[in-house]
Design a protein that fits this description.
Shape: globular
Number of helices: 21
Strand content: 5-15%
Structural class: alpha+beta
Length: about 575
C-alpha cells in the first residue's frame, strides 16, 4: 500500500508541477530504478565515481534546466531556479544515495556566487557549461580554517593588467575533480580587511589548478586542490570587497536548504526497507512488529519523518515568497538545516534499534543510510552554528509579531530570482514575523497541540521573567539548550501550517505533537541540569515537564499506517 505522505518511486507524479519538471523527475527515478539496487550498492562499496549519473544528467539537461535562472536561460521557457522542483529533485537523489545528491548540491553552491554576480560574461559561461553537462564547485573552505572566511589564505596578487594571480589551497570541495567552474573565495594580498575579498571563477582543467586528492573515503569526490599562480582575468572576477563576503553567506542560504530534503529521501528509503524486514521476521514465535517497543519505535520514526516533510514543504513557500520586506525564510532555512537533519538521525536510529544486525548488511540500502545520514547535520555549518543563528531571531519571533500577508502554497512555475539578490548578509535581529500563535490556535482542539502550546507559552514566560543574564548570554552551552526549546516552537508552527495543504490526518498530527511534547520535556530537563541555570530557571524547567495526552486507539490507527509500508516498495535488483 502506498502512503500519500511518503515518496514512492513507482507511484510518484507531482501533479502540482509543470509537465517538463514532471518528465525530468520521472526520468531521474526511472534511471535509478532501471539501473537497479545491485549497481547502486556495488558502486557505493567500490567508491566508484558516478560518471554514469552525470552522463544521464547531461543527456537530459537536468541540471541546466533546474539550475539556470530564467534571465540566463536564452529564452528556454523551462529554465528557472524553482525551489519547489529543486526540493523535489533533492529528495529523489537522497532517496537513491547521498553521493548523487552531493554532486547536485555542490553544483548549486558553485552557481550561487555566479548568479549573484553582475558579470555577464561569467554568467553566460556558467549557463553554457550547464548546457554542456558540466557540474560546478564552491571553493570556500580551507584546511586550517574550515569555513572561517575571515581567515582565508587564498591570496590574489594584482597582475598589472586588471587581473590577478591566485595562489593557495582549498579543502573539502565537492566536484573539485571535474568542475567546469569553481567559484573560489580569496583575498587580495595588497588590500587589508573586507575590501580585499574577491570571489572569482576558476576551471579545474586549467594547468595552474592542481588537484591534490580526495579527502574522504567515499563514492563522492570531495577534493583538496591548490592554485599555483593561477591567472584570474578581469572577466573571471565575480565579486569584490564586502559583496564577496555577502555572496558567500547568501550562497549558503540558498544551498543549505537542500540538506533537509536529502535527509528526508534517505529516511524514506530506509523506512520502507526497515519496516518490510521487521514485519516479515518472526522471533520467539511472534512477528517482530507485534512487540510493543518495536511498534513504538517504528511509529515514532514514521511520525518524525512525516514532520520533517511537513516542515520542509512549508519552508519552500517562504523561500519562494521572500523579498526585501519579507526575510522570514532566513529563520526557517537554518531550521531545515539543523532541525530536520538531526531529526533524520533520530529516524535512522529508531529504525536501526528495530532491525539491529540487518542494518550492517552490505546488500541493504540501510547500511548506506546509517552512514550517510550522519553527514548532513555537519555540512554547511554545524548544528551548533545554525542553532546559534536561530537564537538571533528569538526575541522578535516570540515577543514582537507583526502582520504579514498570508504566504500561499507555492508550486507555480516561477523563477525564484530574489534568492540571488538577497543583499547584505546582516540585520537578522531586525526581521519580524507573523504571530506564531495563530497556527497553534487553529489546531487547539488537537490534544497534544494544546499540551505543547502550554509549554510554548511557558517558554515565553520564562524569557520574560528570567531571561538569560549577561553571563549566561556568553555561555553558548547554556544558550544552545534554550535554542532547542525555541526551535521546537518554530518547528511546530510550520508543521501546523502545512497540515491542511498536506491533507494530514488528525490522528497523525496528534502523534507528531506527542513527540514534540516529549522533546520539549527532554530539553527542559537538560536546562534544569545546566551548571549555569539559576534556581528560578530550574524551577521553571520542572514545572513545564509534560506527559503527552495518551490515546491508545489513536496510536493504533497511526501504527496501521506504518504496518502498511511493509512490502510497499523494494528497489529492483
Amino acid at each position: 500500500m502506498s502512503d500519500p505522505l511518503l515518496f514512492h518511486p513507482h507511484r510518484y507524479d507531482p501533479a502540482d508541477l509543470d509537465e517538463t519538471s514532471r518528465r525530468l523527475l520521472r526520468a531521474t527515478i526511472d534511471w535509478f530504478e532501471n539501473r537497479g539496487k545491485r549497481a547502486l550498492v556495488d558502486s557505493y562499496h567500490e567508491r566508484e565515481w558516478y560518471a554514469d549519473f552525470l552522463d544521464f544528467a547531461a543527456r537530459e539537461r537536468l541540471f541546466a534546466t533546474f539550475l539556470t535562472p530564467s534571465a540566463d536561460g536564452a529564452d528556454d521557457k523551462d529554465k528557472r531556479w524553482d525551489t519547489a522542483r529543486n526540493a523535489a529533485l533533492s529528495e529523489i537523489l537522497g532517496f537513491y544515495g547521498l553521493g548523487y545528491w552531493y554532486t547536485w548540491q555542490v553544483t548549486v553552491l558553485g552557481l550561487g556566487p555566479v548568479w549573484q554576480s553582475d558579470n555577464a560574461a561569467a554568467r553566460a559561461r556558467a549557463a553554457e557549461l550547464l548546457d554542456q553537462g558540466h557540474v560546478m564547485a564552491f571553493g570556500l573552505s580551507e584546511r586550517p580554517h574550515g569555513a572561517d572566511i575571515y581567515a582565508t589564505d587564498m591570496l590574489l596578487t594584482p597582475d598589472g593588467e586588471g587581473g590577478f594571480r591566485a595562489t593557495g589551497g582549498k579543502y573539502y570541495i565537492g566536484n573539485g575533480n571535474v568542475a567546469g567552474l569553481v567559484s573560489v573565495f580569496g583575498r587580495r594580498a595588497d588590500v587589508e580587511g573586507p575590501e580585499g575579498y574577491v570571489f572569482f571563477a576558476a576551471d579545474s582543467r586549467h594547468p595552474a589548478y592542481r588537484l591534490v586528492r580526495n579527502v574522504v573515503n567515499a563514492q563522492m569526490y570531495v577534493s583538496e586542490f591548490r592554485l599555483e599562480d593561477y591567472p584570474v582575468r578581469a572577466e573571471d572576477v565575480l565579486h569584490t570587497g564586502p559583496a564577496a563576503f555577502d555572496a558567500a553567506l547568501n550562497t549558503v542560504n540558498v544551498g543549505k536548504f537542500n540538506l533537509c530534503t536529502a535527509s528526508i529521501g534517505i529516511c524514506e528509503h530506509a523506512m520502507y526497507e526497515a519496516v518490510t524486514h521487521a514485519h516479515g521476521r518472526v522471533l520467539y514465535g511472534r512477528r517482530v512488529t507485534d512487540f510493543p517497543h518495536v511498534r513504538r519505535e517504528l511509529t515514532d520514526a514514521y511520525a518524525r519523518l512525516v514532520a520533517m516533510k511537513l516542515f520542509s514543504d512549508r519552508a519552500v513557500d517562504y523561500f519562494r515568497s521572500a523579498g526585501p520586506d519579507d526575510r522570514r525564510y532566513l529563520l526557517f532555512n537554518p531550521m531545515t538545516k539543523m532541525k530536520v537533519t538531526t531529526e533524520g538521525e533520530k529516524v535512522i536510529d529508531l529504525l536501526w534499534d528495530v532491525i539491529a544486525a540487518k542494518g550492517f548488511e552490505a546488500d541493504t540500502y540501510f547500511d548506506k543510510a546509517a552512514k550517510d545520514i550522519r553527514g548532513l547535520p555537519k555540512l554547511e555549518g554545524t548544528v551548533h552554528v545554525n542553532l546559534a543563528l536561530i537564537l538571533k531571531f528569538m526575541p522578535n519571533y516570540l515577543f514582537r509579531p507583526q502582520p504579514h500577508p498570508a504566504v500561499p502554497t507555492r508550486r507555480d512555475a516561477a523563477d525564484d530570482e530574489f534568492l540571488f539578490r538577497q543583499g547584505p548578509a546582516r540585520g537578522l535581529g531586525a526581521i519580524r514575523f507573523h504571530d506564531w500563535r495563530a497556527a497553534y490556535d487553529a489546531y487547539a482542539r488537537v490534544p497534544n497541540v494544546a499540551r505543547f502550546r502550554e509549554q510554548a507559552d511557558g517558554l515565553v514566560a520564562l524569557l520574560a521573567a528570567h531571561a538569560p543574564d549577561e553571563t549566561q548570554q556568553r555561555d553558548l552551552d547554556f544558550l544552545l539548550t534554550t535554542g532547542q526549546l525555541f526551535a521546537l516552537v518554530v518547528y511546530g508552527q510550520l508543521i501546523l501550517e502545512q497540515a491542511e495543504p498536506a491533507g494530514l490526518d488528525p490522528d497523525l498530527l496528534d502523534e507528531i505533537f506527542d513527540l514534540l511534547v516529549r522533546d520539549f520535556s527532554g530539553y527542559a530537563t537538560e536546562l534544569h541540569g545546566k551548571p549555569a541555570t539559576t534556581d528560578e530557571q530550574a524551577a521553571w524547567a520542572l514545572a513545564h515537564l509534560r506527559r503527552p495526552v495518551v490515546d491508545a486507539d489513536r496510536t493504533a490507527r497511526v501504527w496501521q499506517r506504518v504496518a502498511d509500508l511493509a512490502g510497499a516498495y523494494e528497489m529492483r535488483q
